[in-house]
Structures are given as C-alpha cells and as structure tokens.
C-alpha cells in the first residue's frame, strides 16, 4: 500500500538550497518512499534518540521524516554533514 507525503516549510527551504540535479534526486526518492519504504536503496532507519527516520537520497543527502499508517511528514532534505548540526 502506498502512502502520501506532505512537506513542511523547512523542507521546501532545504530543497531550494539544493542543485537542480539534487532536487530531481529528492523527488525520485520521495516517489520511491511512497511506493516501497523498504526498498534497499533508501536505507530507511530511525534516527537514534529522536522520533524521526531518515532515508538516503544519495551518498550525501538525507530526508528526515516522521510517519504514521498512511502519511509521511517530510521535515528536512539536507546534506549528511548537516545532520550533526540539527
């Protein structure tokens, strides 16, 4: 069963700071998340010590999100090194 995604204002801010190529990769990742969150390329896992999860967009960019039965709430789309500063 596929899920729907909603994005926060901060997610949009993050997205527009990425290159056009990276933005396309984020869009592709969101579609894959909605279809199959268990896909191995996403490497979906909980962010330790938080209520959030993350998936890989590529080797550098991560999407931070929460989810329930039928909805993903996308909070951030950031470079991996930024995660330590959040």
TrEMBL record:
Matches recorded under SUPFAM superfamilies: RelE-like
Cite a single GO MF annotation.
Answer: helicase activity
What Gene3D superfamilies does UniProt report for this protein, alphabetically?
RelE-like
- Keywords assigned by UniProt? ATP-binding, Helicase, Hydrolase, Nucleotide-binding
What protein is this chain from? Putative DNA helicase
Question: What organism is recorded for this protein?
Answer: Schinkia azotoformans LMG 9581
